Amino acid sequence: MKPGSLSSALYALSCLAAAGLSAQILGPGMWGAIFLGAGLFVGASPYYPPLQQPAGAIALISAILAFLAVALGLLAASTGGSFRLPADQALLLTLIGAIGVFGIAVHRVLTRRAPG
Known about the structure:
- It is a single chain.
- By secondary structure, the protein is an all-alpha fold.
- Helix content is 76%, strand content 0%.
- The protein is built from four helices and no strands.
- It has helices at residues 5-26, 30-44, 52-78, 87-110.
- The two termini are 23 Å apart.
């Protein structure tokens, strides 16, 4: 098993699931395409070494944006004094949070320097 293949696969699967759910909730659009492109790029990176450094950077940037999106989504859901978030939107926020978690893992694995 290549280093980073498990974390990259989990990142890619969460991106693909988020793209599909986003298309179902909001309709096809730019964010679904971004999720899809980032997932495929990072998912392929363990098998093609020149992609590993850029994929690690993309994973880190998407992780930061994902955590920001989750925080803002939860803030928006709590506006008005009561927490209202439909189940499909809660699942989308969970998938975006998974993109953040797996993005950090991919970045750490793919940008790790060899000892020596």
